Prior knowledge:
With about 120 residues, the protein is mostly beta strands.
Amino acid sequence: xxxxxxYRILQIxxxxxxxxxxxxxxxxxxxxxxxPAGIRVHSLASRAGQSQSTKMATVTFASVPAILLEKxxxxxxxxxxxxxxxxxxxxxxxxxxxxxxxxxxLNDVPLDDHTME
Length: 117
């Protein structure tokens, strides 16, 4: 059995909806992250304060992709995976979240539900 881990994926284009994250990730890096059905998205949220708005997701894989297993053997905790979106070449950042306990706070709040504290 392949060891499991939770991963944080950064630099997801801002127009990718949560329902489409698995499909989007399956197209990155020549399909090395596996099929959409094997990608579970725990959260997706916008990342503000960047020159170009992107999103960050917390995901697990039904079977950890070989590309991530190879890199984990080398004790790396963060990797770059290239992708093309709307004609633009970009890079996803993937890192291991070793302390993930099944809870994540990364979710966008609908504008009409948001109030200042």
